[in-house]
């Protein structure tokens, strides 16, 4: 590949180090897995946003979420990145763009002399009433996640899945429906979708979800009436309860009337996954892109090269090859130990 | 089609029987004709589309997806039908709605071997992933959603508020899409006429006798006969039509041509299907199992494991219905009737003379034949009634075998029990006496009370040594472990289990907190029992 005089080689904008993706020109890391002097964070999920960095640049919501999870002193200093606002760090220009994954989630674009690389973090294209929609950022190199990077993953419309949940609550009105959902993003989206579908009853929450739901509400997201589901405040039979996935089939759920185990996740597309977990009502609702959205997004960015990270890299790399797009899995360059 | 697909997806993940019934009834109530009738046919195995073969699906999918991507996908999912349903390209159809089950069935029925690929491709284009999965399962046979034909009939009965025996009696005269049946069940039309020749008659079943029942029963009122360990059947031969039914009304004639050939009588017999020759040898249930659930039978198997019927009752003789007569009268008629039948294929179930309950109990505990699993008590004046009326018939089974085993693994249950470790794998000792190891011999998930389940769950959590997904390995050595008394009905030889034995109906009868693990039984105990069962 040839670059004109004065145009940066986009591949030189980011390199892999044991700590994570590193920008030599700006001397910062994106979503580093170990403490570093300067970190740019895409979103608040704990495998991307860790505590102990010297300084953190992230969106307002991501900074708030990190403070809720790790306490106020999670980093030496923090700085808010406004979406769409370019800033110069060292020799590069950095811009945050919405990723549509969870509240505050952003892609990070790095530019120099007309060459652009976009680290998308985690992203989805499906509508989500609790966060800003994904924005396509044209680029030379697109770094994509591949959590659901196999052609078998095709998420149905989330509204359809919520309809199935409400149908089941009608069919089994005496059973408490406990839906497993990750505490940040999925839980709030599920609640907002249930509200959109006309469910107005109080929704009961596991203790681990309460602070993040309160935070979403403080950002103007309407979640309707919520109550903690404690032993003293046991929800009535037939109520809707949201809990972290690990609590659904554990002793915590014994306080409820004849619980019906549900799980909201893209993994629920595979029947055997639902069976193994003892899920009676799988809801295929994901905050990650499915196969069709991953491939469509790669095309839309116009990227000539794609770096594929965390997930099923090999299938997405194969698809890129078949479609004449250069691609490489990032783990080959030292991301093996990345936690998922 | 999508409604039916959703029903299948729910059924396969709903563990409780009542939950499955609720889903089925809801489907029958809300899905219009003729879709619900085709759904019923699919669930009861009444649809067959010979033009569609599983291999065709793989070929079609490979034409649409890169083979490497298909291989990655299949490797991940592990099920061909599911993989094809998920990787099939979307957005290929120009319709704005998905086809109904009725339309799908008609298009599949019209498919010939040569246009099957085109018919199937079009359907897959028009459906959602869930609908595609359902159509593939429907077309290639075998929905495998954990719902028996019997349970489906029970759902129909509950839906229409009629006894399930009525559904069973009508069943063989009905054909999909069952419009008349649904009209009747909804109170919109008459009961469909039983149009079938040689129809099934609802079977009379017994209740287990309880300790407290004997005080109020007079031995003189009841005849006793042996309870044989085969399968209960109804043998029907009327106006040239011969059918062998299971006790739930499934037509199993096809698997037993050797018996059907000899059904040269006019009438309906209730009896026990067994392997062997009544004058020489009565085979075990394990022998009979070789003949069950088969579509075709080889000549060798017919020679090796011939079947016969040990006759209990006579429901119809010629064109005379005997069901309203007292048992004693039917018995007299049965004796004369069986005397005229081929003696290598039919014999009479002998009565067991006794004077008191104590005497009968002694006989029950020492039966003259290993294939006897207890005694039946029948009121001499009882008519032959459908279902399980309380009083006229009792079963008094032989006491179960028990063995002391050691808890080895526990797995979480489903539904109500999903937070409990409620499925228990247990083992007995094998190897050298001074250095034995535990060999798993079975799995049990009932027999204990709710309180005992809580104790077991706590024990598992406190004594876990390893975890594999939903399974925990529990500490079990000579001096530390939990002994479970396991009750079971019998043993079969098994090549699929490392121990070489398989228990029938194992359940946990007692928790032996008091017993040290090294006092649990050895595998030799089970092997001796197996010898006794097979030896006779």
From TrEMBL, chain B:
Q: Which InterPro entries match?
A: ATP-dep_DNA_ligase (IPR050191), ATP_dep_DNA_lig_pp_1105_fam (IPR026333), DNA_ligase_ATP-dep_C (IPR012309), DNA_ligase_ATP-dep_cent (IPR012310), DNA_ligase_ATP-dep_CS (IPR016059), DNA_ligase_N_sf (IPR036599), NA-bd_OB-fold (IPR012340)
Report the catalytic activity: ATP + (deoxyribonucleotide)n-3'-hydroxyl + 5'-phospho-(deoxyribonucleotide)m = (deoxyribonucleotide)n+m + AMP + diphosphate
Keyword flag Cytoplasm: no
Q: Name one Pfam family in it.
A: DNA_ligase_A_C
What is the main EC category here?
Answer: ligase
Q: Which residues form the ATP-dependent DNA ligase family profile domain?
A: 300-430
NCBIfam families noted in UniProt: DNA_lig_bact, PRK09247.1
Name used for this protein in its record? DNA ligase (ATP)
UniProt entry tagged with the keyword Chaperone: no
Under Enzyme Commission nomenclature, its number is: 6.5.1.1
**Keywords on this record?**
ATP-binding, Cell cycle, Cell division, DNA damage, DNA recombination, DNA repair, DNA replication, Ligase, Magnesium, Metal-binding, Nucleotide-binding
Q: Provide any one GO MF term from the record.
A: DNA ligase (ATP) activity
